[in-house]
Amino acid sequence: MFEQMKIRYFVLFGFIASIVTIIVSSLIYGSEFLENDTLFTNILSYTILGVFPFIWFVLQFKKQNKSIFDVIHFKNISHMLPIVIFLTATLIVFSLGAFWLSSYLLSFVFPSYVEFLLQDDSLFAGTGISFVLTAIYVSFLGPIAEEYIFRGLLLKRLGAKINIVASIIITNILFGILHADIIGAFMFGFILSLIYLKTNNLLLPIIFHILNNSIATLLAIFDPPTPDFLNYVTITQIYETAIPNLIMFVITIPILYVFIKRNFHVIS
């Protein structure tokens, strides 16, 4: 189903939808739309990872006499849920370590960029309805849309055009680039790709993604106490917290390696 869809059309119409959204929103809200970062981000996000993908995929599946629900099903997923939960926890730890590692390595080349990443806490900067919209987008809407786009359209279409190995690498490099934690996001996307290819059920990656993002959202909202080595906000502190962060990164690798090895046959 995804194999028959054209990536270039998705990108083209997505670009057009974004331009139209910016123009219409500017007419409605005036200069506030461009000056208010939270308003701009929410409206554009709900367009790019909300209204537009939903309409586009509905129409694409309709052309094939299918539904967007034909790629997700609830049958025989209960036995996979414990694995999903365990891998989610493992990947959260891996991502924390990977973010430290990438920040550490980049600090020698692009220190100003690393300082920007460490100080950027604007994700939930809004209040009231804006705050709620951001939380819903990050926790639910974004994960669903990203799974249809990355694990569905890109992975399957590129796999049909070239081969599945190249597809899984290219798709998840793109997925990583679009997230602050490139290494962690690549591994996250890679694991989700294996799960989708193994089960041919997009619901499991969607559940995985929602669970991961919801945990991140709750942590950002409630800001519970965390170990000191996770609270680095300067490059100097990155160096000072090297050992515990590196240990956290390394201990997850054998777990992920075993899972990848046991399921690598789906792309080989």
UniProtKB/TrEMBL annotation:
Keywords: Hydrolase, Membrane, Metalloprotease, Protease, Transmembrane, Transmembrane helix. GO terms for biological process: CAAX-box protein maturation; proteolysis. The chain crosses the membrane at residues 7-28, 40-59, 80-102, 122-142, 154-171, 177-197, 202-222, 242-260. It comes from the Bacteria. The keyword Magnesium does not apply. InterPro entries: CAAX_protease (IPR052710), Rce1/LyrA-like_dom (IPR003675). GO terms for molecular function: endopeptidase activity; metallopeptidase activity. Signal peptide: none annotated. The keyword Ligase does not apply. Pfam families: Rce1-like (PF02517). Residues 130-214 form the CAAX prenyl protease 2/Lysostaphin resistance protein A-like domain. This is CPBP family intramembrane metalloprotease. It comes from Oceanobacillus arenosus.
